[in-house]
Automatic annotation (TrEMBL):
Record keywords, A-Z: Ligase
The name this protein goes by in its record: Phenylacetate--CoA ligase family protein
MF-aspect GO terms: ligase activity
Native source species: Pseudonocardia yunnanensis
InterPro entries recorded: AMP-bd_C_sf, AMP-dep_Lig_C, AMP-dep_synth/lig_dom, ANL_N_sf
Residue ranges of every copy of the AMP-dependent synthetase/ligase domain listed in the record: 104-275
SUPFAM superfamilies named among the record's database cross-references: Acetyl-CoA synthetase-like (SSF56801)
Superkingdom of origin organism: Bacteria
UniProt entry tagged with the keyword Ligase: yes
Record carries keyword Cell cycle: no
A matching Pfam family: AMP-binding
Location of the AMP-dependent ligase C-terminal domain: 365-458
Length: 473
């Protein structure tokens, strides 16, 4: 296997010859069972390294009665207890700033990224220079598989902040040899300037979130620019579901007249492009020699069979500063067996990551994922650009309403008929009734980053009922 060593070492001068489809042909196309043997050996090395250098892992595994030497198969590895995000936050609080799962001397940490901390204590990612370069090399490989080449100009259209996604795309494109344009996102009026700069600089590849790409296309039209004329040939995404959801994917591809590629898992396990497109078809491959992915039953934490749905559990195979070993994602996906017909012999997620287990809500006994609603409403030709999902409980029954913008110029009677038809399609897909409420174009807020489309006011109602506080503010 090309440049397969522990700790990782890469030839920074290497780049595939022009016309070569794979960055590392042997690693990417070898029989999957042979790769699994190498991965098992690497897992034992990574676990041994963590045992020797991390009090966090040593304590956790000792309590479970597990030692790295006892892992004789990938099935044995499933017995290793999963790590949850809450454990990482608690460990960092007790062992500031990087936690006792940091496996290098703190002086070796040269880059700091992290979570925003909007839902609790922020998590700091302490990244050594070795890991920074490993992520760059890994992302370059996956971007090469997407068809991105040194002659491209890649615009990074997401915040240049603690967010790992922007920096991962940046250093991957840089390592690949492309021209990188870190324009960012999130400031007032910046989207219109993005359109101007894309035209001026001749950007050919865009990175961001699917929601922002749709907002960018809408802004371009408002500025009198056809987004299909901007010159993009590829867009690749992470940060939220969408790039493998058929209706969202189609809207982006048609708007920009360009190929769409999905990627991304969790910032904690960067290189997050280890789930990444290997062609122009929807879905992502699990690049198992970068991060070993298990799709697991969310109760037993054992792997589910191919063709089944579960939650991904990730193990980094190249990180030395903060290795993640069986980190539970809480996301939702379905995987399929490796097939050489896809050009690379990795397991395949045909719909990518399409939701989170904790994003699921239950309406009258039916499990509903926001991405299923997104797929229906965004595929409709009358869709006006944005929607919002509102869950309420007026009486004893949950009520699901979807506010959907319609295209301008629709008469009131036609608008009501359109909403009724869309409600019928949602009922057919979801198994429960959903009241579509049509709203005028540009009524709902747009986003420069990740979309937040679900409003669940049942918790507020429940709090009022529990406390008896029915007063108004």
């Amino acid at each position: 296997m090309e440049q397969w060593s522990w700790p990782p070492r890469y030839d920074e001068t290497y780049r595939p010859p022009a016309g070569q489809e794979h960055w590392f042909p042997r690693r990417e196309t070898m029989p999957s069972h042979e790769r699994d043997e190498a991965i098992l050996a690497r897992i034992r090395e990574v676990m041994g390294y963590a045992w020797d250098n991390s009090p966090f892992y040593r304590r956790k595994w000792d309590e479970a009665g597990i030692h790295p030497s006892s892992i004789a198969s990938l099935e044995d590895f499933e017995k290793v207890p999963v790590v949850r995000k809450a454990e990482l936050r608690a460990d960092q609080a007790a062992n500031e700033p990087f936690g006792s799962y940091l496996c290098v001397d703190p002086a070796e940490v040269k880059h700091i990224n992290g979570t925003s901390g909007t839902t609790g204590r922020p998590t700091a990612f302490g990244i050594s220079e070795r890991d920074w370069r490993s992520v760059a090399n890994a992302h370059a490989r996956v971007m090469w598989a997407m068809g991105i080449r040194p002659e491209d100009t890649v615009i990074v259209g997401s915040p240049l902040s603690l967010y790992w996604g922007s920096w991962g795309a940046y250093i991957g494109a840089e390592r690949l040899g492309a021209r990188v344009f870190p324009f960012g996102a999130g400031q007032t009026g910046q989207t219109a300037r993005t359109v101007q700069w894309m035209r001026q600089m001749g950007a050919t590849v865009f990175y961001g979130t699917p929601s922002y790409a749709l907002h960018l296309a809408e802004t371009a039209r408002h500025e009198g620019v056809d987004p299909a004329g901007l010159g993009l040939r590829k867009l690749f995404f992470s940060g939220e579901p969408g790039a493998s959801v058929p209706s969202i994917r189609s809207r982006i591809a048609v708007a920009f007249d360009a190929d769409v590629h999905d990627s991304g898992s969790m910032a904690e396990v960067s290189p997050w492009m280890h789930l990444g497109s290997g062609s122009t078809e929807p879905g992502v491959l699990c690049w198992q020699d970068l991060v070993y992915t298990e799709v697991c039953d969310p109760v037993s934490m054992r792997r589910v069979s191919y063709g089944s749905e579960g939650t991904p559990v990730y193990t980094t195979l190249e990180r030395t500063s903060q290795p993640m070993i069986r980190l539970l994602s809480g996301d939702l996906t379905r995987w399929e067996a490796p097939s050489p017909d896809r050009g690379r012999t990795y397991p395949y997620l045909p719909r990518g990551i399409y939701g989170r287990i904790d994003d699921m809500f239950i309406i009258r006994g039916e499990n509903i994922y926001p991405s299923a609603i997104d797929d229906v409403v965004m595929a409709d030709p009358g869709y006006g650009g944005e929607h919002r999902i509102v869950i309420s409980r007026g009486t004893a029954m949950d009520v699901l309403a979807v506010q959907v913008e319609h295209r301008p110029g629709i008469a009131a009677d036609a608008c009501r008929e359109w909403a009724d038809r869309l409600s019928g399609r949602l009922r057919h897909v979801l198994g429960v009734g959903a009241n579509v409420v049509p709203v005028q174009h540009n009524t709902l807020p747009r986003t420069d980053f990740k979309a937040q489309r679900v409003i669940d006011d049942r918790d507020l109602l429940g709090e009022i009922l529990r406390t008896g506080d029915g007063g108004t503010a």
